[in-house]
Amino acid sequence: MRQPRVIVLRAAGINCEQETQAAWELAGARCMIVHVNRVIENPSMLAECDVLTVPGGFSYGDDISAGRILGRRMMLALADGLIGVRDRGGLVLGICNGFQVLVQAGLLAAGDTAPATLAFNTCGHYLCRWVTVECANDHCVLLERGRRYFLPMAHAEGRIAIPEGAEVAADRAALRYAAGVERVGDVNPNGSWGAVAGLTDATGRVLGMMPHPERFVRRTQHPFWTAGDVPEEGDGLAIFKRAVDALR
Amino acid sequence: MVVGETTWRIEVTATRAEDDARGRAMSHAARQAGFTSITAIRATRIYKLRGHLSAAAADVLAAQLFTDPVIETYVCTQHANWPDDDTVCIEVHLQPGVMDPVAQSALGAAAELLASRAASEADHIAEIRTGWRYHVAGIAKRHLAKELAQQVLANTCMESIYLRTGDHRDDLPQRFPEPPVFPFEKRTIAILGLDDDALAEVSRAGRLFLNVTEMRAIRDHFAALGRDPSDVELETIAQTWSEHCVHKTLKSAVTYRGKGFGAKRDRDVEVQYANLLKDTVMRATRELNKPWCLSVFADNAGIIDAGNDYGVAFKVETHNHPSAIEPYGGSATGVGGCIRDILGCGLGARPVANTDVFCVANPEMANDRVPVGVLHPQRILRGVVAGVRDYGNRMGIPTVAGGLFFDDRYLGNPLVFCGCVGVIPKERIAKAPCKGDRIVVAGGRTGRDGIGGATFSSGELTDAHADEFAHAVQIGNAIEEKKVLDAQLRARDHEGGCLYSCVTDCGAGGLSSAVGEMAEELGAVVDLDRVPLKYSGLRYNEIWLSEAQERMVFAVSPEKLDTLLVVFAEEEVEATDIGVFTGDGRIQLHYAGNEVALLDCDFLHNGVPMPTRAATWTTPRNDDLESESIPVYPNAEFELPHLLADLNICARDAITRQYDQEVQGGSVIKPAVGRGEGPSDAAVVAPHEIAPAVVALGKGMCPRVSDRDPYEMAIRAIDEALRNVICVGAHPERIALLDNFCWGGVGGENEMGSLVRACQGCYDAAIAYGTPFISGKDSLNNQFSLSPDDAERLGLPRRIAIPHTLLISALGMIDDATRCVTSDLKRSGNTLAVVLGDKGSSFDDLASRAVLHNVVANLVGSGAVAACHDISDGGLAVTLAEMCIGGKLGANVRCDVPLFDDMLAGYVLELHDADALSSLTGVDVRTMGTVTDDARFVIHGEGRNSLDVPVAELERAWRRQCGIDMESA
Predict the structure, then answer these.
(1) Contacts of A57 in chain B (CB under 8 A)
(2) Considering A95, B389, B535, B796, which has the largest number of Cβ atoms within 10 A of its Cβ?
């Protein structure tokens, strides 16, 4: 069986690259971490990979706004390469800050004409908690229709905002927040439009999501694993495994 | 400004109020600070650009870089103008020289964007500065607008305020500030032949914080050399000899005369300590002689064995005085500094977890109770939380454990403890610079920020401090430090071996302390001209002593230098060769072709006079103690919710949820445990290098006990820290301790006596429990002087000293993550039991306490325990209630142990099988009842000690969130 090749991008302030690499490897992929500057120097790297992942963190400090600087840099220097990965049958995955980067790079939107952005959470600050998200359609290659994923989120700017009067197309809303096993808090933790937690594109091969699947691959990462009834494999690992299966 | 340059001003505003996060946060903060008439604040981000920029180029930057077209609009102008309406309008701009991280990040992106435009070869951007404009609705008077700006919108020690109210308009800044030019002039300070009074004046005028004995030693040293010192020589000595750097009080010889310790407390004793720290805290470590202690008290952090090829490093620092003046910057740079201690420990450890502990006054205090020169405790708390959040989260290090303690004596001098844990390969622990190694400074550039940090930390705070020491305040830039971390670990793990022979961080004292420490045995020559600067205009002594953040110093052999510089360049980190380790035992500084310092390393590091200190202690009588009036409740049912809502007991998730607890994917036990998110006793993290082993982190602190006896406080703090990590699965055989002494002052003999008692408590408990200290830090001058008028107005003493506070942090190794236990109740029908020492809560017999800890640790390790929770603040009933909340289950118990005794210091256990208790010996174990699934908390006691309440009601009381309102942080 072919082992998919994954590039996990690194940049100043990106800080989830190691656990993201570990999750891909656990799912059966071959994965290397590469600094964005090396990719910009040598964009042909993208032609040799099946998956590009932009992991979480605070690229360039999230200065100006989250993901803006890295997103604009990638749009300037790597737009063709990113679209190439997707159009060759590969996948692009952005997690948390990586999602913000993909939105700022213009790869993800609310629909064919409506843009989207990730604005400040309604609560006004950074929030780290576990949330349940649900995949409502079978458009995105990495997600299973009807499945619920219990995952940690950790962000300040994760509220999907769109222009007045626009809406997020049903097939683009890859994940929505849902009521699950978590104790408290609003079902929609950041005030996102339509409780959308993740976006995909027209091909279903690009996914951006605010919760962190790489942070729940093992049982002991679950917030109440000591209370029992938690399977060995975390919900997040299912997303990486599904991606690997799709590429084999 | 350079000829031909233009300036542009880009104003970016959210189109809809709901997307104006900054404006909403500020209006919330304003109303909370008492500006209740304010109806709305709208915020506009300002970017000021300087460079060769056409209008088209400025517009491209505004549209494509600075504005989010979905939610924002922009205006691009050449001149700053007030708007044409008549609202109150306030602008806030960083003062020249203050770190502006947003501007730094934006500059690179702007240059890249301009370079990508074919038509704009002439465009060039030289500098960006940022600011904020606020439109305020609901106030009109100028003095109110000014108060709003000073109290809520800006911190005047680092920001400038511009107001427009009615027709009264301040002139807005149009130009970029130009740094002053520094014409070189070597200054010497005349001290030869001076008498004591004159020496004291030199120390005071230079803010050296050196006492007369020390000034005499310096005078005599230079008299022997036949010359006066230069300013930078004197300042280097002051920094090296500062309390902050040399810990001269804790390391001094002490004669103690006073009450004995523990069971001998009623007898008078006399004890001589040749070196207080070495004879107590460090002596315990030496005598215990644990083979798993790999590095103790020798490096920037202590290191213990993880059981494989790695060690675990732990350090806890304080950053109290900077946080009193600028809470956000103070706590953020506290986190940053502690992370650098971990990077600077051995040849560098990889940081895997942060901890934080804050001590502040009541955040719900009335505004008019706050003295002049003091920030409101609510603002301090919000600020320090936001600082830890923004620095730790950006570094990608989970903040997993901490504490929060309230006492109004922290009003003028809050305490901020920041800890960091790292993982290091054992073969990267040993380090030493070699003769001929180059001195490389890497990371952020040096500016005027934070000059005098070490000496500032050593003095006491006053009402005028915010003005006098504004230059000691700093703003961190976490991303700079993250880049340094990435680059350093690459250089450490380079395929050809580590690319440097030694490393340390620039802490308080800057290059002076970093290079000075590394060169202690060898000596060094440094060319100060080569140090990269943020802006021109720094004097040579400022370059040498600036505390500018995010810098590390490396010793690099000449043949590895080029490779190291390439690695750092690839990570976008500036690294510069500034000198060499010589081997002649002297620190030689050059600037502009002149020798500005030539200091003997031996005098610098060993010349500080260490006089013998006298210490006394008399046990305070009960009526001398400032005791809070303890409320009397009619019955337990009434008392328990009140206790759960107590500031020192209630839930902290409004704070902990703002910290990224999950980054690195290693959190095994988080601050909230169980389905009901109850409080955990300790955090457990699982760094991948040491799998399957994991690290437990706990803390103990009981400052109020120090009013009665600091000896007992130290033992209780150690006991609590130990109980914390034992509850989650650690065993005393593999637990190491850290100390952080924060004293109100040590000027008087009684204060010295209190320090002696705490140190002796540390020794006695560490020996009894078999748990060595591996690292520590002290901050011994934590008091605030009020102005006479203010003291009278508020009815407060002129001097408010903090309660002597000893923070004990515990680091426990656990072999396997899956063996960890949490405090939440697990299953209806399980047995509940309380375990105490066989002498109850007495700490006179530490051997029996040690038995208690070992018995419980063994029981937890055996797998018989479903839940384990330490009894501390609030006592037994609070402990059980917290376990119910965490487990979303009830409890039905009968017990003859006092329900609300804070001093009980035991454990509550939930057992899968009650039989496990029958084999326990040497402890007082009592079965109490069972876990129930009816969501009620029932205690069958006598009379007033009975209660029957829904757990949901207890949870409501407990979740009051310690008075912090984070919506506006």
Answers:
(1) 396
(2) A95
**Distance (Å, whole) CA B83 – CA B94:** 21
Identified catalytic residue from A31, A134, A214, A222? A214
A2 to chain B nearest CA, in Å? 27
Contact yes or no for A128 and B657 at CB 8 A: yes
- Gap between the Cα atoms of B654 and B78, Å rounded: 43
Residue-wise pLDDT for B440-482, tens only, equals 999 999 987 665 555 555 566 666 655 555 555 677 899 999 9
Q: pLDDT confidence of B119, banded at 50, 70, 90?
A: low
**B14 to chain A: nearest residue by CA?**
A119
Mutate to test the interface with A, among B660, B689, B956 (most CBs of A within 10 A): B660
Which residues of A are less than 8 Å from B395 in CB distance?
A: 15
In one letter, which amino acid is B479? Answer: I
B-chain CB neighbours of A69 within 8 Å are 65, 105-106, 108-109
Binary contact (B820, A226; C-beta < 8 A): yes
Q: CA nearest B147: which of B13, B42, B23, B37?
A: B37
Answer whether B674 sits within 8 Å of A18, measured CB to CB: no
Of A35, A181, A221, the CB nearest to B665: A221
Sheet with B735-742: strands ordered across: B667-669, B683-685, B694-700, B805-814, B735-742, B773-779
CB atoms within 10 A of CB B756: 27
Q: What percent of chain B has pLDDT over 90?
A: 79
> Cβ separation of B664 and A18 shorter than 8 Å?
yes
Q: Which residues of B touch A181 (CB under 8 A)?
A: 675
Q: Is A212 a catalytic residue?
A: yes
Task: Please choose, from the candidates B663, B599, B617, B649, the residue with its C-alpha nearest in 3D space to the C-alpha of residue B258.
Answer: B617
Q: Domain total for chain A? A: 1
Which tokens is B760 given? 């002796």
Asked if B96 and B27 touch (Cβ cutoff 8 Å), the reply is: no
Cβ pair B477:A129 closer than 8 A:
no
Query: What's the pLDDT score for residue B452?
Result: 55
Can you give the residue range of the structural domain that contains A79? Answer: 5-247
> B487-493: long-range contacts at Cβ-Cβ below 8 A with a sequence spacing of 24 or more?
B487/B442, B487/B567, B487/B568, B487/B570, B487/B571, B487/B573, B487/B575, B488/B343, B488/B348, B488/B442, B488/B552, B489/B348, B489/B350, B490/B567, B490/B571, B491/B554, B491/B564, B491/B567, B491/B568, B492/B347, B492/B348, B492/B428
3-state secondary structure of B717: helix
Could you give the C-alpha distances from B915 to B458, B727, B859, B932, in angstroms and in order?
56, 20, 12, 19
pLDDT tens profile B825-867: 999 999 999 999 887 767 889 999 999 999 999 999 999 999 9
Please state, as a whole number, how many other Cβ atoms lie within 10 Å of the Cβ of residue B108.
Answer: 16
Quick one: which H or E segment has residue B586? strand B586-591
Burial B117-126 (b: 16+ CB within 10 A, else e): eeebeebebe
CATH number at residue A13: 3.40.50.880
Other Cβ atoms closer than 10 A to B489: 17
CB pairs under 8 A between A and B: 184
Residues B339, B420: contact at Cβ < 8 Å? yes
pLDDT for B371-411, tens place per residue? Answer: 988 999 999 999 999 999 999 999 999 999 999 999 999 99
Say yes or no for a CB contact (<8 Å) between B662 and A128.
Answer: yes
Which residue bears the tokens 């210490």?
B615
State the complex-level ipTM.
Answer: 0.96
| Residue A111 DSSP code | S
Pick from A34, A117, A215 the residue to mutate for testing the B interface (most B CBs within 10 Å). Answer: A215
Q: What is the pLDDT of residue B182?
A: 76
More confident residue, B73 or B99: B73
Nearest-angstrom CA–CA distance, B135 and B488: 45
